[in-house]
Amino acid sequence: MDASQTGPVTDSLDRRIISALQIDGRAAWHRIAAALGEPERTVVRRGTRLLETGLVRIGAMAMRGRSVVVGVRCAPGRARVTATALARRPDCVFAHVLTGTPDCLAELRWPRERLAGLVLDELAGLPGVLETRTLPVLRHVRTIREWHAGLLTEAEIAALKGSAPSDATSPPVTDPLPAGETSPELSRADRLLLHALAEDGRRTYDELARVSGVSEATARRRLGALRREGKVRIRAVIEPAVLGLPVEAVLWARTPPAEVGSVTAALAESAHVRYASFVTGERQLLILTAFPDESALHDFVTRSPWLHEVASIDVSLVLTTLKRGGMLAPWLQD
Length: 334
Description:
Blueprint: H1 12-23, H2 29-36, H3 40-52, E1 57-62, E2 66-74, H4 79-87, E3 92-98, E4 104-110, H5 115-122, E5 129-142, H6 154-162, H7 188-199, H8 205-212, H9 216-228, E6 232-237, E7 247-254, H10 260-269, E8 273-279, E9 285-291, H11 294-303, E10 312-324, E11 327-328
Antiparallel strand pairs: 1-6, 2-4, 2-5, 3-4, 3-10, 5-8, 7-9, 7-10, 8-9, 10-11
């Protein structure tokens, strides 16, 4: 099986609730209802259905190391195997199989001081690999956790962020640690807490306390601290098709250095751009996008004003996704 069911997203309110969960995956239903100006009972009913049917999954990911993008050219017929091996790595954030070259694309969180071992030993040992390209991320322009498809107003976004003691209020597009530094080791209780959240990011504080062996007040305090310090991200994981955007594409853009700022500013404003990073290599900008159809993608890569400042752009379609937001696709979960 290659694609999860998108299921019954009935109208714009479902999509707006999903967008709210993308901003803060642990937001209480009453806070989402207040921000969206909708009856709480309606938001509870619809939001609960979205979670129970698996259309939206809330998970947590410990933020260690720095982002590294890996592109892999695979032996014929081996792309699915290679992408699965990448996706099953605990340090993998996302893993896609693409048209064109590379065949597989993944983002890993990896300590800079161990990058040589990753490139020379670990990636070379992946099944089906013919060639790898390892591209450290120098700066994130937008990450998936900041994307919500333009379905909410600025006032609604501010309402959702304003009262959340969480990573929802973190500065955008920055990594939590300076280059070369690694996160201090977490306590056993923190590790247990994060493991529980990785399976279900909306577990109650009572459940988190029982799993991690601390009091409810301690669980609440520790999770709040971990989120404020950027050591964990709690995110809503969805298929873009659920929001009416079934066509996903990966763009590689080469831009004159003097034009990078204006291009990245334009990308950050687009509701179609789910992720954009400045990476090493000849094509400095890696852009993950989603569209309602191929025609909209065509318009984006041929008519966008920022294209005047781009020297070249390559487009690959996403064939299947093995991991999003640190969460394996449902058919890969044991």
